[in-house]
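dude i think i finally got it to work??
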Amino acid sequence: MIHNDRLAVDAGVLEAGAVGIPVENWERSRTTHPRVVAYPTRVEDIVQILTRPDCYPSPVRAIGSTHSTTGCGVADGGTLVDMTGMCRIIGIGNDTVTAEAGALYIDVADALRRRNLQFFVNVEIGNLTLAAPPAAARRKHRSGASSGRSAPTSWPSSS
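look at this
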């Protein structure tokens, strides 16, 4: 991991020249070539990434466990923001979970189980990050029109 000397942030950053850094999804069906891959660990790091286009060129795309088979993680010539360093479970209510985007589904499921709760749907991909399902939920149809579904800010749980 290379630290970006141009910014006073704790996030790690990999930088490449015009060719880009090859990043594949988990099944190797998609490859993107961002110029920068950032590894934030704090909200302040994300603010820096989004407000410094001189260091973090667009497009800027967030990734987690790279399970998406869609183009939502493609950032050719731009910036990929690897959210796996932001994995805290912030709160669990009676019917919601609030967590950072890099939290693993299996870790949140375990935290819910300790409270006698569970997700409405439990998937068997434990290393899926919470950000992955909402990112994949908003997709385009072949016609180019959006499906209209948007990502929730908190995940529902059931007792």
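The two ends are 42 Å apart (CA to CA).
im so relieved honestly
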